[in-house]
Amino acid sequence: MKNILFLSLTLFCSLAFADIKSVTVFDGEFKKINELTQPKDIEAFYSLWQTKIASDKKIKMDWSKGFKIDISGDNDSGRWLYCGGWLMPLSKSASVGLYQIQNYQQFELVLGITHNKSMVHRPSKLGLDSLTLAAH
Fold first, then answer.
1. pLDDT tens figures, 87-125
2. For residue 122, is it within any domain?
3. Number of structural domains in the chain
4. Which region is the signal sequence (predicted)?
């Protein structure tokens, strides 16, 4: 009985995010930051996406410094503006308004959004010889 319940719950959760085909993230200058296409990544995104709640707050924000999130294949498909935990849809298919993500730090981590440029992974400019010499 427990196995059937577990299987049903797993299948339900799988179907819930199965409609999302991809999530693409762009910075304020429309440079592509990340694209989620793997089921594991989309599932992580979807679980955090479900924490968004509608807000009636009025906020002033420079959205050009925010991020663009393109969702493909879901009821919320389209482009969303994102900045510091706040979301605003730009498509007609999504509900109009302002939303807040509950755990926005985790949300940004899943999306690959970093605010500290030094944290972005870049290959080292040091050659293998430099590393060997530095070790001695």
1. 998 866 555 789 999 999 999 999 999 875 544 433 333
2. no
3. 1
4. 1-18
**What is the spatial distance between Cα 126 and Cα 115, in angstroms, rounded to a whole number?**
25
Q: Is 112 within 8 Å of 121 (Cβ atoms)?
A: no
Residue indicated by tokens 């299987």? 7
CB atoms within 10 A of CB 102: 12
Is 85 part of a structural domain of the chain?
Answer: yes
Q: For the packed helices 104-111 and 39-49, what is the interaxial angle rounded to 10 degrees?
A: 160
CA-wise closest residue to 65 among 46, 49, 86: 86
Q: What are phi and psi of 85, to 5 degrees?
A: 95, -5
Quick check: 78 and 94 in contact, CB under 8 A?
A: yes
Task: Output the domain CATH number for residue 66.
Answer: 2.60.40
Q: Does residue 131 belong to any structural domain of this protein?
A: no
Q: Let me know if residue 132 belongs to a domain.
A: no
Q: What is the pTM of this model?
A: 0.69
pLDDT tens per residue, range 35-47:
999 999 999 999 9
